[in-house]
Task: inverse folding
């Protein structure tokens, strides 16, 4: 019944009706207020709780360890300092060349059009990123276009965020129009978690714009646990795939959420059922406030060895780490 209502509700009203108060989230899941240990409310002030109700509907009521809940509920451990966990673990502030442009890799760069997300993931490596100083305005397009022309090796733009699918269809379309005018750009990749937390963002208008683009469109969704893929989400993604749009998934390996072979195998099979190929499994970026999600490398390696033995190769995501200054993601070696 709850999911039926979300199917009917327009994505923008869902985005305007997020749960932002920890107490409301706890009550919606019929959990005791004691789940909010000292410090959780303070952690929420530092990085605000944001979660769509459609995502909350995928959580198990009365389960304080629900793997979806753990990803969004502020935790007092976020306030603890740890020398290895810092505010900009990937050195992104130094890699920003122009407003919105993060050019780290040779043939492609990230274009950040918004700092807004539909959901705040507590492990997010950009949770401290100063978006307000880095978003491109319309008049910045000429400089961005010149940057592309002066790098003929660039053939791909990655819309990232924040989450680009929180933008209106009109604004998104405007930026796609601009990118399409540059002949050397062949591929547009969109990194987004919105299809998982508000699946009906993938509406007809957006999909038709993507389908009719001259660019090869790749939608890289971000799904960490099989419970995030209910029937409606899977059916929606499958429709996107059937329109000829490439769908990939990147997940983050998170302690207490998906650090088991059983969970990761189920995730790969459910993604495949929805027309999505598992692309990356990232080890956690060491961002301040996320240390309680860290899976030690040795455990990640054992887990990955088991995963290789459980799944056909095409369903095994690449286990990688991002290292500041490196020209590509670094595969975790054994
Ligand atoms: S949706 Fe992506 S960018 Fe936004 S908080 Fe989650 S991980 Fe970070």
Result:
């Amino acid at each position: 019944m709850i999911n039926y209502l979300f199917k009917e509700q327009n994505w923008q009203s869902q985005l305007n009706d997020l749960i932002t108060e920890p107490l409301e989230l706890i009550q919606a899941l019929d959990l005791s207020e004691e789940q909010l240990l000292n410090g959780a409310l303070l952690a929420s002030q530092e990085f605000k709780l944001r979660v769509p109700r459609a995502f909350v509907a995928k959580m198990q009521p009365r389960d304080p360890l629900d793997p979806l809940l753990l990803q969004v509920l502020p935790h007092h451990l976020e306030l603890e300092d740890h020398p290895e966990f810092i505010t900009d673990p990937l050195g992104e502030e130094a890699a920003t060349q122009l407003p919105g442009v993060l050019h780290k890799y040779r043939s492609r760069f990230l274009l950040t059009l918004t700092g807004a997300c539909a959901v705040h993931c507590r492990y997010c490596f950009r949770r401290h990123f100063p978006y307000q100083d880095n978003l491109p305005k319309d008049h910045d397009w000429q400089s961005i276009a010149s940057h592309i022309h002066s790098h003929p090796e660039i053939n791909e733009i990655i819309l990232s965020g924040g989450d680009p699918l929180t933008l209106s269809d009109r604004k998104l379309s405007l930026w796609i129009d601009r990118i399409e005018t540059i002949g050397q750009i062949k591929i547009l990749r969109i990194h987004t978690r919105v299809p998982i937390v508000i699946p009906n963002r993938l509406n007809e208008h957006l999909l038709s714009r993507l389908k009719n683009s001259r660019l090869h469109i790749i939608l890289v969704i971000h799904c960490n646990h099989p419970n995030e893929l209910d029937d409606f989400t899977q059916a929606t993604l499958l429709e996107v795939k059937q329109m000829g749009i490439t769908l990939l998934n990147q997940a983050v390996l998170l302690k207490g959420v998906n650090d088991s072979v059983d969970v990761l195998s189920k995730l790969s099979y459910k993604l495949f059922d929805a027309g999505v190929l598992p692309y990356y499994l990232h080890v956690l970026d060491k961002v301040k406030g996320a240390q309680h999600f860290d899976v030690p490398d040795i455990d990640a390696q054992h887990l990955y060895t088991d995963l290789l033995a459980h799944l056909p190769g095409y369903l095994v995501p690449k286990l990688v780490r991002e290292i500041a200054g490196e020209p590509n993601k670094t595969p975790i070696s054994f």
About this structure: The beta strands are 96-98, 101-102, 108-112, 156-160, 187-192, 216-222, 246-252, 277-282, 318-321, 330-331. The chain has a mean pLDDT of 93.
